[in-house]
Amino acid sequence: MVWQQLFNGLTVGSTYALIAIGYTLIFGVLRIINMAHGQIFIFGSLAGLSLAVNSGLPLAAAFPIAVAVSGLLGLILEYTALRPLRKKNVPHLASLISTIGFAILIEELTHIFFGADSRPVPAVGISVFQLGPVQIRMADLIIIGVSICLMAILQFWIRKTKMGKALRATAENIETAGILGINTNAVINMTVMIASGLGGVAGMLIGIAYSALIPTMGLTLGFKGLAALIIGGVGSIPGAMVCGVIIGMSEVLAVAYGDSSWRDAVAFGMIIIILLVRPQGLFGQKA
Q1: Which range has highest mean pLDDT (67-81, 137-151, 205-219, 232-246)?
Q2: Cα–Cα distance for residue pair 283/152, rounded to 1 Å
Q3: Which residue of 29, 38, 70, 120 has the smallest Cβ count within 10 Å?
Q4: How far apart are CA 61 and CA 79, in angstroms?
Q5: How far apart are CA 212 and CA 16, in angstroms?
Q6: DSSP single-letter state for residue 282
Q7: SS3 88
Q8: How far apart, in Å, do the first and last CA atoms of the chain sit?
């Protein structure tokens, strides 16, 4: 029973990890927490799902659509809510409030375009097989496999490619990076689009896991990713990956051996403990 719950937690946690990486990328470059992240990727996921279903396309076609729509919304966020404030050199709190306003706008647009009811996600990978005490759905393997592949590709891209190195330089010091000839605006655009696009994939994977997408779930899922960001250490991509999985497993165990009402309390209880014991996070470093 425990092994089954841990596997279920791994499935959910891998999607939380993708969401947390989106927060981490944006914070690393802009030093702000994008409070519109959840609403952006849910809008993108619903757009991908609706276009694929209405056009008679396979569910796989919804993924690139979700990535494109989420990335475009992230770019709109950058040009309308972040860059104008950055040019005026206003405090980061103003940018944070600006992302909250953008989140409210996107949530209202989500209700206008997609309504408030849940949208069923076509079943994929319905075959089930037994591995010792664990019952594994093919859909779970798809979710975990896609998440791991994306995280591995992202790590390679950041560490080994020229654009990845430019991103790291911009995150280290945006003014110095600009002096060295790096187009920091292009780096920021790319970062916001990648972060939002990863969220779009995470939203589709969550839809596969639960067989439905709910327009209002962006806020809750965004907070789960934010929890993974804080617990892992703000700015740490490996920390976001690992702690997203930890939160997913903790939630599933809490529901299985406690009460379903504990699901959302687990992540935020962990935040309080981490902030008291290790404020920089499990993978973070002291300033």
Answers
A1: 67-81
A2: 18
A3: 120
A4: 28
A5: 17
A6: S
A7: coil
A8: 42
